[in-house]
Amino acid sequence: FTQVKVSNDEEAAAADEAGIDMIVCTSPTVEAVRQGNNTLFLTATIAFQNFPTETDVLREAFRALALGADAVLTPRNLDIVTMLAKEDIPVMGHLGLVPRKSTWFGGLRAIGKTADEAFDLYQRFKRLEDAGAALVEVEVVPGQVMEEISKRTGLITVSLGSGTGGDVMYLFMEDLCGENTDPPRHARAFCDLARLQQQIKDERIAGLKAFREASLGGQFPASDETISIDADELKNFRKKLGNS
Q: Where would I find the H helices in the chain?
């Protein structure tokens, strides 16, 4: 399957028209995303820093589901995963490189490049599975490691920079559409929206300059762009002005 991260109704609609299977968004944007598409499997990310307590997470999860999400993503501890799973909320975990926790593991780097670290990662998969998760985003893990673990877990594995061995291939919309000027190594731009956005910016400025020049030079508005009045009515109007 394929999955992309979307931010609004336009991107969600585009994902559907393109045949993408699954979409992800932040939980505050669920309602807007569902306005663009209400059929694709949608996972809502519950931000690590915005919902600190279990009650906060549970309330936000139910809110997202009520607005149309099918699952929630959380990088939080296993107790929170279990809490959500016990409420029959499908949970996507996050393993491998978790950017907000990256300083705990030596910065932004691949996870699982040694046998010991790869096996520890595998054990994390099993613990996440036992906690009740249904899916897991796997970020920046060696492709061979992802393939071996994916064979040995019941979790639906979503590969972000972790090779082709997962069940779902995942990229961010801004990366795959070429909007990010500094994309991560694992991303590929399949089109060049940045070029089109720059072209739009340039065209807007050119249009504004041309409007200013035409206005100050007397070329705008032209006669066919100006409302006219009947000659006799204008004459009478001027006469009234003269008598006022």
A: 9-17, 30-36, 54-66, 78-86, 115-131, 143-151, 173-176, 193-216, 231-243
Burial state string for 150-179 with b = 16 or more CB within 10 A and e = fewer than 16:
beebebbbbbbbbbebbbbbbbbbbbbbbb
User: CB-hemisphere CA count at 13 Å for 223?
Assistant: 1
The distance from CA 88 to its chain's CA centroid, rounded to whole angstroms, is 25
HEC sequence for 110-149: CCCCCHHHHHHHHHHHHHHHHHCCCEEEEECCCHHHHHHH
Indicate the pTM of the whole model: 0.88
pLDDT tens-place string over residues 28-42:
999 999 999 999 999
DSSP-assigned beta bridge partners for residue 160: 139
pLDDT, tens digit, 9 for 90 and up, residues 147-190: 999 999 999 999 999 999 999 999 999 999 999 988 999 999 99
Asked whether 93 and 137 are in contact (CB, 8 A), the reply is yes
Give CA–CA dist 21/150, Å, rounded: 19
Q: d(Cα 147, Cα 154) in Å, to the nearest integer?
A: 13
